[in-house]
Specification:
alpha+beta; 8-stranded antiparallel barrel; 3 helices; 8 strands; 15% helix; globular; disordered N terminus; disordered C terminus
Amino acid sequence: MNTLLALALLSSTPATPDWLAGDWDPYSNAFLGLRTLSIGKDTLSWKGCADARFEVLASDGHGDSVTLRLAPGTTCSLDDVARTRMDTVRLTLRPNRCDLGVSIYASAEAAKRNEPSAEGLYGKPKCPSGPAAHAAASFSTTPR
């Protein structure tokens, strides 16, 4: 019985979408200091934050947005003076399939209230759209 329960719980946990895997380069000023974001099946790496484990908290029904919660004890933080800790990260793939909206939250509670510590735009390095200035300009680039 316990095995069946464990299998049911595992199958109900959202999986990391395939489109999320790989390297993403910062377009927004807010994230230039963090450099490239690398995402694997259950880890991500940013400046000062290598192979941080995460769990997928939610994935929207359209398959273009995912919310991740970093494992307790990770050292991921924003590149700001206060060194704001990253707890929850919401990633939204733009319709061009090249650009990624990134919202970083200091806590799960802040994510529930939709109060990001920083927001910005990343993109695939070899995507034909490239770091479109108009795309980056239309998105918040100031850490909050």
